[in-house]
Amino acid sequence: MKQLRIGVLVGLFAVAGVLSWAGARLWDSFGTLPSVPVAAPIVLAVIAAALTATALSLRARLRAQRERRPGAKGVDPLLAARAVVFGQASALVAALVAGMYGGVGVFHLIAGLDVDVRRDQAIYAGASVLAGACVVAAAFFMERVCKLPEDEDDDGSGAGTSRA
User: Fold this and answer.
1) Which one, of 75, 65, 54, lies nearest residue 142 by Cα?
2) What does the pLDDT read at residue 76?
3) How is 85-121 classified by DSSP, letter by letter?
4) Which of 17, 28, 63, 157 is the most buried (most CB within 10 A)?
């Protein structure tokens, strides 16, 4: 399983932002206003909280298992792999969604914030971008928690790393 790369996420964010900004300009030329739902930052924040809580739980269980505490509940490797995949998928979708709302937010900023509706939409878009960044950060934390320590190879080089 490959690790997340920040460049891929930034590229996805930028492409989605440019396309949504252009789409918002087109949409506005027809006389309607592109909108950002109020629930967008809330949903992204809930996903970030779920990822963070899962990562913290796995980290505590892995630490207890590593320290061989009596009664420590181990972590199934398949569970850790699923958690990492969930984090990676969430980060990719969050980068796309944050870019989309970021582009709409930039359109609202350029168009002017003198109208209350545009100001509210720009605030919702900014909150969505911030919550999307929190999802990405939580996904990177999940990857770090579930990463296996470096193992010694048969030849003793110690270069082998693997993921849970």
Assistant:
1) 54
2) 84
3) HHHHHHHHHHHHHHHHHHHHHHHHHHH-S-SHHHHHH
4) 17
What gap in Å lies between CA 6 and CA 10, rounded to an integer?
Answer: 6
Mean pLDDT score, 44-48: 96
- Residue 163 three-state SS: strand
| Range name among 55-64, 111-120, 128-137, 150-159 with the lowest pLDDT average | 150-159
What size, in residues, is the chain? Answer: 164
Residues 6+ apart with CB under 8 A from 58: 75, 79, 80, 83, 142, 145, 146
56 or 148, which is more confident: 56
